[in-house]
Automatic annotation (TrEMBL):
This is Glutamine--fructose-6-phosphate aminotransferase [isomerizing]. The keyword Repeat applies. The keyword Repeat applies. Its EC number is 2.6.1.16. It comes from Butyrivibrio hungatei.
Length: 365
């Protein structure tokens, strides 16, 4: 059952602290990252210096965050491919190319076909899957399970943050074994990862505030979301959530790219969500916010206390995220974006769990 919540999606949003805890637990052994149980040797990320993530939808968006983690922490070149396009692009697969396939269901046909193609070309396949014993886990060389439990709502929430969790663990692991971060730094990162469940709990306590803030979307058929770096990747997912369950046409834009065309669409009253969590990028983001404000955008700001000053956006339109190390900010931000989509759909009276024209598992190409 829905455990007292109006929809499975709301229940699953609340299950994230446990999902993340359960996904982390098997991979910290004696205070260190471990993937021994999956048979992944310690030399793995020395031998595989080229990663291609293949996935669809939300799982692909998790891969975009994973890409930045592999780059930042482990210095491993990583591409992200939409599974349905992968086979059409003649992807370059050389010895030492590792495919990471990401899937909640483990049954998405586009992803299965891409895996088969990559294997034929000689790639090793590591999958990140939620459903035990599914096709994708079967056909992969290695499988790391997310422990999100059954996800019923069509809109993916806890599977996404659990997939992110695995990417953090893998990137920290690779960086540590390749000598790019010290044991001390890596345990600092692991401590931060283990704080995520509690931090998500703090967001959930403020859900009524998100509900109020969300009213901006109700009258609009269009919305934009702007951010840089990890914030941009996260907004691609936030935007998909809003589209799929509330039917608001929403576009996530890399803030710097707006002025290359899309800013023509920013007119009076259009809702714009700005996500600003990365300290090093904040000052550039301020000027992008000014640009859209001066064209009359109706702003929602999601940021952190340390970056909020000078933003010039009223408190009522601002969600202040708890402070974490910059690299971990996608977690609390993800939950706010999920709540925004949830409340928009809920308040409009839609069937949140079963959006029109969508299936939980996509078994056609
Ligand atoms: O089961 P999968 O993770 O392979 O599914 C991939 C996508 O179909 C899925 O994430 C889809 O985008 C969700 N409905 C998004 O909420």
């Amino acid at each position: 059952g829905k455990g007292g919540y109006a929809f499975y999606m709301e229940k699953e949003i609340h299950e994230q602290p446990d999902a993340i805890k359960d996904t982390v637990a098997p991979h910290i052994v004696d205070g260190k990252t471990s993937f021994e149980a999956e048979g992944i040797p310690n030399s793995f990320f020395r031998e595989n210096q080229n990663i291609v993530v293949i996935a669809c939808g939300t799982a692909m968006h998790a891969g975009l965050i994973g890409q930045q983690l592999f780059h930042t922490l482990a210095n491993i070149h990583t591409d992200v491919a939409v599974a349905s396009e992968f086979t059409y692009t003649n992807p370059v697969i050389k010895p030492g190319t590792l495919v990471i396939a990401v899937s909640q269901s483990g049954e998405t046909v586009d992803t299965i076909e891409a895996i088969k193609y990559a294997k034929k070309k000689g790639a090793k396949v590591l999958s990140i899957v939620n459903v035990k014993g599914s096709t994708i886990s079967d056909i992969s060389d290695y499988c790391i399970y997310t422990h999100a439990g059954p996800e019923i709502a069509v809109a993916s929430t806890k599977a996404y943050t659990s997939q992110l969790t695995v990417f953090y663990l893998l990137a920290i692991h690779a960086a540590r074994l390749n000598g790019l971060v010290s044991e001390e730094e890596s345990s600092k990162f692991l401590n931060e990862l283990q704080r995520v469940p509690e931090v998500i709990g703090q967001i959930l306590e403020k859900k009524e505030f998100v509900k109020k803030m969300t009213s901006k979307f109700l009258l609009s058929e269009n919305a934009f979301m702007i951010g840089r770096g990890l914030d941009y990747s996260l907004l691609l997912e936030g935007s998909l959530k809003l589209k799929e369950i509330s039917y608001v046409h929403s576009e996530a834009y890399a803030s710097g790219e707006l002025k290359h065309g899309t800013i023509a669409l920013i007119t009076d009253g259009i809702p714009v969500v700005a996500l600003v969590t990365q300290s090093a990028l904040a000052s550039k983001e301020y000027s992008n916010i000014r640009e859209v404000q001066s064209r009359g955008a109706s702003m929602i700001l999601i940021t952190r206390e340390s970056l909020y000053k000078d933003m010039n956006i009223p408190e009522d339109d601002t969600f202040i995220l708890p402070e974490m190390d910059d690299m971990f900010m996608p977690f609390p931000a993800a939950v706010v974006m999920q709540l925004i989509a949830y409340y928009t759909s809920y308040t409009k009276g839609f069937d949140v769990d079963k959006p029109r024209n969508l299936a939980k598992v996509v078994t056609v190409e």
